[in-house]
Amino acid sequence: MSDSGQSVRTPKTALPDPVEADNIIYDPSLDQLREFSKEFETTTEFGSPSYVSDQRSRNADKTKNAVDEEFGPSDYAHIEDATEYAREHEMVCVDRRMGRHAEHSYRCRLYVPKCYGRIALGWAKLFKPVEEEAEPDFVTIQIPEWDEIAVRILPEEGVTAVLGSDYTGEAKKSFLRLFMFHAKRKGGLGLHAGSKRVALHDADGELRNVGQAFLGLSATGKSTLTAHGLWLDEGAGEEATMLQDDVCALLPDGTIAGSEGNGLFVKTNGLDAAEQPAMYDAVTHESAVLENVDVADDGTADFDSDHHTSNGRAIILRDQLSSAGDDIDLDGVDQVFFITRNPTMPPVAKLSAEEAAAAFMLGESIQTSAGDPSKAGESIRVVGTNPFIVGSKGEEGNRFRDLIDDLGVDCFVLNTGYLGEKSKDIGVQESVTILREIARDTVEWTDDEATGLTVPSSVPGMNIEEFAVADHVADHERRLAELRTERQVHLDIFDDLDSEIKDAVY
């Protein structure tokens, strides 16, 4: 039983009690964790610590879980190796609370070697401190200095071993992956998504509240759009409040339960103070932790540089992000947006429940440096734009369709990239305008002959006619026909996906 009072799995790590073990520093302060990594720190001009890791992104191709893959003796040996290492070396152990919802809140425990305190420092800032001693629901042991890279997960037991990687994102996702797995087991659906609450005046001048969720791969604009203030009239009582940035759980009652209650792990490359002022202020605050950002010896940070990687990151505190609210749970979702960078897609299209489920299964985007840097820029399909699904992917699509259909949620696909061969850029200004006016319910819709999709015929504050697919995509009829065939073939690989969803491919 956890300190949230719910029944949990007992992690089979066979580790000693960290409070009593001589080799484990239990729950050190943030200042102590920073001090443990002082020799690896470059202090920024803002007074914040900056670190450069050996691994610059997640190692998806070296990650296995015991639900979806055959888990043999060598896989269990990786977990045993991590456990044995933690018994014999000087470690830090940090407990944090993930989520606040009564049924979707978990105590998480991270073990890392003391000399890699910086990983625990960044991770600890993402989640809320715990108030009392108790057994954890989920445990991750991260051993960066191992001579082989391997991430092994026992979802039922709540245990993850991360060997050979010093990337903070591996620690973060090890817990969020399990958050989503257990959300599905409880009748909901884990989402790799941001969530926000918007209060604004509709076409009739009435103040309305709208709950929005954004599904997208890392570095496609999910964080930017989730945190954006939408240029609302705050003097008239309008506001946009960011609730979650990365992982949530869609529940049968329409609630979207959040996971990260204290901070955010955001991409910094190309961070612009003019376009993202709230995010820029939080990243440049002394409380942030920077990872793989180009920081000079004198502390000057260059967010336009990809000297270390194009996947530069920062852990920021919610308290320092002006667009972030006190809550992390959205009490009702009205609109879901699938973020894509498919160059044959219009800036936005409105989807039926079955089309939305097909979009969920297709998960079309462009590979980014956060996933596989060697393939950045290539077309990619990831179910739910969620690389962290554990269990049947077809069942995820069916569950998504059933939930949004029951709840009457409006769904859209949003292109945040280019039309055609980079002939027409769909920038932040265009995407924000579309989001704001959809929330206001001022967008007029029509059937587009070129794509077969429902697209805007007018968007207040934007000349939407300039973004017609037929005008920017060369040989669009052939390309779209080929794309539909590719999509149908792709959906056919999911045997347990409902035929109505397969038939709704657009």
Radius of gyration: 22 Å
Query: In the CATH hierarchy, what is the architecture of one domain at level 2?
Result: 3-Layer(aba) Sandwich
Q: Total number of helical segments?
A: 12
Shape by Cα distribution = globular
Report on the architecture of this protein.
It is a single chain. With about 500 residues, this protein is of the alpha+beta class. It has a domain at about 25-35 and about 60-165: Phosphoenolpyruvate Carboxykinase, domain 1 (3-Layer(aba) Sandwich), CATH 3.40.449.10. It contains twelve helices and 29 strands. The strands form seven sheets. Strands 1, 4, 5, 6, 7, 8, 9 and 10 form an eight-stranded mixed beta sheet that branches. Strands 11, 12, 13, 14, 15, 21, 22 and 25 form an eight-stranded mixed beta sheet that branches. Strand 11 (about 190-200) and strand 12 form a beta hairpin. Helix 1 packs antiparallel against helix 3 (about 115-125). It is globular. It starts with about 25 loop residues before the first strand and ends with a helix.
